[in-house]
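[User] Once you have settled down, look closely at the record that follows, and write a paragraph about the fold.
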Amino acid sequence: MVTHHLLKNNSVLNTFIKEIRDQSIQKDAMRFRRNIERIGEILSYELSKKLNYSIEKTGTVLGEKNTEVISNDLVICSILRAGLPLHQGILNYFDTAENAFISAYRHYTKNDAEFEIKVEYFASPSLKGKTLIIADPMLATGKSMVTVYEAIKKFGNPKKIHIVSVIGSNQGINYIKNHFPENTDLWIADIDPILNNDGYIVPGLGDAGDLSYGIKL
């Protein structure tokens, strides 16, 4: 798996990442969602450089012009609910892409330190031979991402997988490397060093779903 860590090079992305981590700015849920969306747009722009292109002819009022445009059959799959703002940012750039949605959440079996990932909903077009983009803002342990991948295989094998995430941990990245195809690309804004005992990224930013849409029961 190839990892593209965008914050290794300075850009306007730095500002958006700083703001989604800032506890005072996080209180504005609309701003938090919009920043996640903008991060998704930046990650999508970088991802687009690795897609396939073909020439299309365009007629103007004065002549014709050949332009290379994306030729991949894209499917964007976001992990509910935290993935929705990120999904929208990706869709803003790949507006003709098909869309899929899957639920995945931590189910604690005994205590706050032990959990399993539950998948209860998946809506998707066929994935056979397509380019799949899996969107989840937080890549903590990597278990959710792997569970989602195992669940969607029955909808067909994509020819290429791109994972788009905002913040991840080294542990989570190493985990998914062992479970995804070798030619998978990970597009991630920033990488934090550790997880705490509860499996949350440190320093991270908190629960992206709660910050976007409010605390759940």
